[in-house]
Design goal:
alpha/beta; TIM Barrel; 8-stranded parallel beta barrel; 45% helix
Length: 223
C-alpha cells in the first residue's frame, strides 16, 4: 500500500511514550514539560481543548531539546495544523482519520498519529500517510483486539495504545507486541504540580524499562 502522501517516519525514541497534558495552563507549560523531559519523556501532546493550547505548545517547543516532539492533540481542522506549525509543533495527534488533516500535517513535516478503532480506519490512516496509529480507547479494545487488527496492517506500522492505559498495563500490551503508549490522566491532571508530575513520570519510566528491558539494551548498544 502506497500512502497518498509520503509519511514522516515515527522517530526512534528511547521510550515511545506520549505525555498527554489535557487542561494544562500556559503558565504551567515550562515547568511541567521540563519535569517530563528530565525524567525521560520525548513526546508531549497538548490537546486543543486545553486553555490557550497554542501558547503552551509554543512555550514547550521553544524550551525543549531538539530531539523532543512537542505537539497538539484533538486536531480536527487543517487550520489548526497550520497554527500548530506556527507555534513550532512537530507532532499532530487527532481523534479521527481525516486525510486532509493528516496530509496538511505531513506537508509541514510533522509526525502524525491519528486515532483509529477499526481495521478500516487503521488502513485508511496508513494510506493517508500516518506516522503511527493511536488505537483509542485502548482500555475498551484491549491488547488482544489491537493485536488482531495489527496483523492486517503493513509491516512496520507503529501501533500505539491510548486511553485508560498506564504503567500497570505495559506488560499485557507488550505481550501483544505493543510498545507505544499515550498517557493522560495517569500522568497529569489539571492542577497537578510539576513535582507531582515528575514523581509520576519517574514511576512510568521505571515501569516501562522493566516491561521492555531488551528495548533499552538495544538502544544502549546502538549508542
Amino acid at each position: 500500500m502506497t500512502p497518498l502522501t509520503p509519511p514522516v517516519p515515527w522517530p526512534r525514541l528511547r521510550r515511545p511514550l506520549v505525555a498527554i497534558l489535557r487542561g494544562i495552563l500556559p503558565q504551567e507549560a515550562a515547568s511541567i514539560a521540563g519535569a517530563l523531559v528530565e525524567e525521560g519523556f520525548e513526546a508531549i501532546e497538548v490537546p486543543l481543548n486545553s486553555p490557550d493550547p497554542f501558547r503552551s505548545i509554543e512555550t514547550m517547543a521553544r524550551l525543549a531539546p531538539s530531539g523532543v516532539l512537542i505537539g497538539a492533540g484533538t486536531v480536527l481542522e487543517t487550520a489548526e495544523v497550520d497554527r500548530l506549525a506556527d507555534a513550532g509543533g512537530r507532532l499532530m495527534v487527532s481523534p479521527n482519520v481525516d486525510a486532509d488533516v493528516i496530509g496538511r500535517a505531513v506537508g509541514h513535516g510533522m509526525v502524525t498519529m491519528p486515532g483509529v478503532l477499526t481495521p478500516t480506519e487503521a488502513l485508511a490512516a496508513v494510506k493517508a500517510g500516518a506516522s503511527a496509529l493511536k488505537f483509542f480507547p485502548a482500555n475498551l479494545l484491549g491488547p488482544s483486539l489491537i493485536q488482531a487488527i495489527a496483523v492486517v496492517l503493513p509491516a512496520g506500522t507503529i501501533v500505539g495504545a491510548v486511553g485508560g492505559v498506564g504503567e500497570r498495563e505495559f506488560a499485557a500490551y507488550g505481550a501483544a507486541g505493543i510498545r507505544t503508549f499515550g498517557l493522560g490522566s495517569s500522568l497529569y491532571r489539571p492542577g497537578a504540580t510539576a513535582s507531582e508530575v515528575r514523581e509520576k513520570a519517574r514511576a512510568v519510566i521505571a515501569a516501562y524499562d522493566a516491561a521492555f528491558p531488551m528495548a533499552q539494551e538495544t538502544l544502549r548498544a546502538d549508542g
